[in-house]
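Lecture notes, unit on protein representations.

Consider one protein chain, 252 amino acids long.
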Amino acid sequence: MRIVSLAPSATRILWELGAAGTLAGVTRWCKDVVPAEAIAGLPIIGDCWNLDAAAVARLRPDLVIGSVPYRAEAVQSILAQGLRFLGKSPRRLDDIYGDIRMLGRIVGKTNEGEKLANSMQSRIAAVRERTAALGNRPRVYCEVWSNPLRSAEPWVEELVEAAGGRFVPCPAGRQVSSEEVIAADPEIIVLAWAATGDRGRPDLVRKRPGWDKISAVKNNRMHVVRDETLNTPATVLLEGLDALAAVIHPER
């Protein structure tokens, strides 16, 4: 099996399954979610937005894996090369567990996939159990893009709830207006701006018109969380859960 991964989440899952040896090519973003040695020497071949499909084809993959968001033109160019393409589109944690199990079956590691999905589910359930009895569940706004404003995906909403908070504004995973966020009055703001690592800018958030009225801004409860740990639908989300729990309930 030779796999070209255009999705850091797929690369992370394959590494966790002990199947990194199936990788024939990865994106530059994959280095942010797996140890460098796991993908050392592999060709870097763009991503689901920008890639050279002919270069991908030269790697002779049995399967190309991508994940939303992706450009339709990029996918069409892969298919035009006669390559098999698997497009992942997770929204909630259950979808991610399903993706882990599916990739396990694809690479002949069904049992490992089952164990990995169950382990991730158990870790999240354990945190949820610890926060279940907490009376104080602060309102939390998680932002993954600043222009236009976009709130974090539904799986982050689930992680916020597991960590003892309340995700606002609902529903998650969409473009939101400044007025919506101000009206929701989050007590905590988490910045996990896509493709920026840990370089979110609370100082810029503070300057947004009207945001000085928001409780999180007034009380200086704005936190930067490394974006890969909240935006990568794979086991790395467990690191994001720990980060959320630490900022939502630092007293615990």
